[in-house]
Every structure is written in C-alpha cells, then in structure tokens.
Amino acid sequence: MVRDRQHGPVVELNRIQVKRSRSKGGLAGPDGTKSVFGQMCAKMSSFSPDSLLLPHRVWKVKFVGESVDDCGGGYSESIAEMCEELQNGLTPLLIVTPNGRDESGANRDCFLLNPAAKSALHMNMFRFLGVLLGIAIRTGSPLSLNLAEPVWKQLAGMNLTIADLSEVDKDFIPGLMYIRDNEATAEEFEGMTLPFTVPNASGQDIQLSSKYSHITLENRAEYVRLAINYRLHEFDEQVSAVREGDGSGRVRQSRHPLHLLKSVATYKGVEPTSPLIHWFWEVMESFSNTERSLFLRSSGDGHASHAPSLTSEDETSLS
After folding, report:
1. Gene3D superfamilies, alphabetically (predicted)?
2. pTM of this prediction?
3. Buried b / exposed e along 23-38 (16+ C-beta atoms within 10 A)
4. What is the pLDDT of residue 310?
5. Those residues with Cβ within 8 angstroms of residue 165's Cβ, 6 or more apart along the chain or in another chain
6. Is the predicted pLDDT of residue 317 greater than 50, yes or no?
7. What pLDDT is attached to residue 198?
C-alpha cells in the first residue's frame, strides 16, 4: 500500500521569509529554524513512519505565496534548497573544513559536521539530516552535499584515523609534533605559556583537562594524547544523531528480520507449505544481513523495502 501512494503529506514551506529572517550571523532565524531546512525539520514530527518509506515523493510541497503546483518538481526543489542551505550558512549543522578556512591543503571546498552544534534543537536537526540521507539512499536520488570523506567514514560506522584528521586539517598533527619533539628546556617551555587547549574543527579552543592550565615539559605527552583523542571523537554526538535519523529514513541492511519478511511475503501459484517455500526460508535464514538486502534489491524494482514474491516458475527452476 505504501508503494502505491504517489506522495506523502502536503507541507507548506515559506521561502519568502528565509532571506527576510537571515540574521547578521548568517543564520535564517534562531539556529536556522526559519530556513526551508528548519521549517521541514519542524514538520517531520507529524510524519508517520510509513511516509518515510515511500518510493518517490516523501512529501508534497506547497510554497506559501508562490503559484507552484508540485507534480514532483516542488519536492525536488525543496530537497535541493535544503542542501544549499546546509552549505551556505543559513543553518548551523555544517562547517567548512579547517583547510577551507585556512585556504591550504586538501578538501578546502568540503564540509564537516559542526561539533559546536550540541543543543537539543541541533540534535533534532542532525536527525533530520539523517532522514534526508536515508531517503536519498533508499530512493536512489543523490543529495548535493559536499561532505568531506571523514564524515562519510563515520556515518558508515568506521573510526577516524590521524590520516583522516590531516585530510581536513593539515596543520593539526605537525603542530602537535612540534610540541612533542621540541627540545626546549623546562624553563623555556614555561616561558611559552602554551594553554592546555586544542582548537576544534570549528576553530573554538577546547580545554582538555581540569588538572592542567598550560603545557609543560612534563605533561606535553599527555597533552598530545588528549588532543588527538578529542579530535578523533569530537563529532561523535552529531554522527550518532545523523545515523539515528538515517535509520528511520530507509530500510537499513541490519533490519531484515525473517518474521517480518514472512509476514509480508506473497506466493503466486505455489502453496505456502510447498517444499519450495520451505527451502526458500531455509536459504534466507542462512543469509547474512547484507545478502538479504542484496536479494531484496534484486528481486524487486530497486527498492529495498519490497517483500519477496515467489511463483511456481521458481519452484520449477529450483527443482
């Protein structure tokens, strides 16, 4: 029934107010809530889970004050507009890489998740970003988001490495190595008055320890360790929220429990009690989650949400 629906709920989006509400800091309203992305995020609480599984238009758009009839173009336009807002400063979720701010190194035109965006509202926005990613993956409609490779690694459940940090902030590790390998005396180190802080990806100084206020010859190894550990994990909260939203926006590979598949499976010209059906479920039981996902994709029309459908011809070919 979900696949037969042409679109989800009708939502009203006001694009006229976006520019009018843009603050001096660049955000469209408080925390970007007046942006198209912010407006859409606020409306997601009224969506049913089934709406997020629609194969094409998850919502239908009505632009306030505009004579746009959404026959598909308005929906696509809203997605494109939200992607643009995520990268042009109208929303607080993404920041340009340190290399981009310094105009040196690789990934200058790429974005990271903003580690300073930690409020409950920000977390909800990150979950909605995950919903958009999940919808894009499930429907095969790519988003125009220029995220740096380390972001994709974390969203895929992979841990960051020192090499990943250097990809987006080429001066970070050399700076730490200068402190670690400096041959200055204890007195000279004291004279440098280096604070026991590390700049995060957005450039804010983060205090690494309540025990130390400055870097000394004795604690510099501890400083380097804590600084690297912080930068490897500074996006964890944001990544977790995006991944949570991603899980609601598509059928994840890890979520194909057999009892649910059996409850929605259909059989054409073959009895549910036949040997074919028995063999089929035995094979499905032996599959990994990834193999089940691949089977569902190949047996349907490209949408992972499809239930298996078996015919008598399958029994002939198997026997």
Report:
1. Hect, E3 ligase catalytic domain, Hect, E3 ligase catalytic domains
2. 0.75
3. eeeebbbebbbbbbbb
4. 53
5. 150, 172, 173, 228, 231, 232
6. no
7. 97
* Sequence-separated contacts (24+) of 181-187 with Cβ below 8 Å: 182/220, 184/217, 185/217, 186/216, 186/217, 186/218
> E strand or H helix at 91, and its extent?
none
User: What average pLDDT does the segment 184-210 reach?
Assistant: 93
Helices (H), the chain: 16-20, 36-43, 73-87, 98-102, 120-139, 149-155, 162-168, 172-181, 186-192, 220-233, 236-249, 258-264, 275-286, 289-299, 312-318
Residue 9, amino acid: P
Interstrand relation of 197-199 and 111-113 (parallel, antiparallel or unpaired) = unpaired
CA distance 231 to 176: 12
**Of residues 208, 212, 190, the one with CA closest to residue 198:** 208
Closest CA to 109 of 159, 144, 153, 74: 144
Q: Which two tokens stand for residue 120?
A: 């409950």
Instruction: State both tokens at 212.
Output: 């130390």
Residue 125 half-sphere exposure toward CB, CA atoms < 13 A:
26
Give, to the nearest 10 degrees, the angle between helix 236-249 and helix 120-139: 50
Q: Residue 267's CB: how many other CB atoms inside 10 A?
A: 18
